[in-house]
Amino acid sequence: SALGTNKNLLTDAVRAVTGNSPMEYMRMLKLDEARKMLDHHPELTIEAIAFSCGFNAPSTFYRLFRKQYGISPAEYRKQANKL
């Protein structure tokens, strides 16, 4: 209501533009940011990246990252470093 619309209208608008619910879209954005950080910040731990990207628990981050990309964050980082 702070945006002058109701929750259903906002949800429908986000879904129309992104193909996902607002929660799913935000999760995808956070995972994409984490993936970029894994690429560009080898000095950061995976746990630090998880917290930096808004995940409350590293275990949640690991699970969602694997679901989204098919590999763990550590495996992703290892592959990215080989390129």
UniProtKB/TrEMBL annotation:
The record's Gene3D superfamilies line, in alphabetical order, gives: Homeodomain-like (1.10.10.60)
* Keyword vocabulary terms for this entry: DNA-binding, Transcription, Transcription regulation
Record keywords: DNA-binding included? yes
Q: What domain of life is recorded for the organism?
A: Bacteria
Keyword field contains Transcription? yes
PANTHER family found in the cross-reference section: ARAC-FAMILY TRANSCRIPTIONAL REGULATOR, HTH-TYPE TRANSCRIPTIONAL REGULATOR EXSA
**What protein name is recorded for this chain?**
AraC family transcriptional regulator
